[in-house]
Design a protein that fits this description.
Elements lengths: L2 H16 L7 E15 L4 E12 L4 E16 L2 E11 L6 E14 L2 E12 L10 E9 L6 E12 L5 E16 L2 E12 L6 E13 L1
Amino acid sequence: MDTPIIIVMILMMVSATILPHSGSAQTDNVNWSSLRLRKQINSKLTFDIRPIIRINDNISKYQNASIDFSINRKIAEGWSVQFLSRTWFLPDSPLGQFLWADVAHKTKIGAHNISNRIRMHYSLNTNLINPADFIRWQTTISPKVKSKFRPFISIEPWFQLDGLNAFTRIRYEPGFNIDLGSNYNFTFMWRKQDSISIEPADIQNHIVITLTKLI
């Protein structure tokens, strides 16, 4: 890897652990497990179905489940758009519904991949799970490696709308992808989610495991 890429990745991971937090912060460890079914409709269009199960309370208790339906289209060299619908299945609560619209761009610095994604995050407010609306900006660095093991690290600040108009959340996401062959891909990610200027702070560590199958 190029030295600047290594430095950026290290700084991003270190900052996730040393940023100060309120003394009233609440922390939980959560597992997200999912199976993504992906259909390449043509050279520009991809359709995904992804059910997710979450286990919270320090990975000891069922929290909820959801299912994503998304369609992604390449619109130009390095550019794509995506629309995603997430339906939440919550214990003792009405169904929740998120709608996301993304614009993404991928490029290279040297041999390394850099991607940016702007996401409009809209909640239909059908229940109390995160009814706020956001603009989210995710930047991901994927260094070049000569193997099927592909590491990455992302950072994603969340800008809350609904009249608040401030950054209220941030995510740090180091992880890796492995090509398993036979149209299977495995992704492991550790996500640190933190509050910004919110009391009490809500800090979550997510272990995100995804198996992708091309169909």
